[in-house]
Structures are given as C-alpha cells and as structure tokens.
Amino acid sequence: xxxxxxxxxxxxxxxxxxxxxxxxxxxxxxxxxxxxxxxxxxxxxxxxxxxxxxxxxxxxxxxxxxxxxxxxxxxxxxxxxxxxxxxxxxxxxxxxxxxxxxxxxxxxxxxxxxxxxxxx
Length: 120
What we know:
Blueprint: H1 3-6, H2 8-31, H3 60-84, H4 86-114
Helix pairs in contact: 3-4
C-alpha cells in the first residue's frame, strides 16, 4: 500500500464536500425567495440600524471578544489530536499539553484582569 492510496478516501470526501456545498448554494440561489422590503433590511442580530452609516467604526470590545473566541477555538483544534493520541504520547505528551494549557490559562487570566471579558 502506497502513501498516496491512503489519502484517496480523504480526497474523495473533500471532492464530495465541495460538490455538495456548490450544489446546495446554487439551489438556494435559484429556488430561494428574493423578497426585498423594509422588514428584510431591519437589523436582526447586530442591533445596528442601517441609516447610511456604512463607514461607522465598531467599538473595540467587538474585536476583543472575537480575538478571545478565536484563541480558544484554536486551542480546541490543537487539543483534539492530543486527546486522540494521549495513551501513545505518555508523560511527554501530558507535560506538553499541560504547558500549552497553562500558557492559555495565563492569557485568559490576563484578559480577565484587563476587563476584556466584561461587556458593558
């Protein structure tokens, strides 16, 4: 068995995923409702009214919240492979993951102290 044949199922899944996303997007564009009106233009989740202020600058709290979310989202991405191989990695893997988590906890404590998690 060659290395390339081991990646064939992954390649097939990626191609199928791209095809399905493209097909569902096209179906939604062609068959979906195209109603435009005042109700459609009202704010839903953002809470900002559309009154011609497209160049309005957002508060820095929005960006801080997004950055904190991304940091912990990336943490989960890096911890998943470790959790899968935790038995094979032994104590070295445990210590490495503990150092990684410790650095992230220090970052969380810093953000908490600076008030980045407070929403006013």
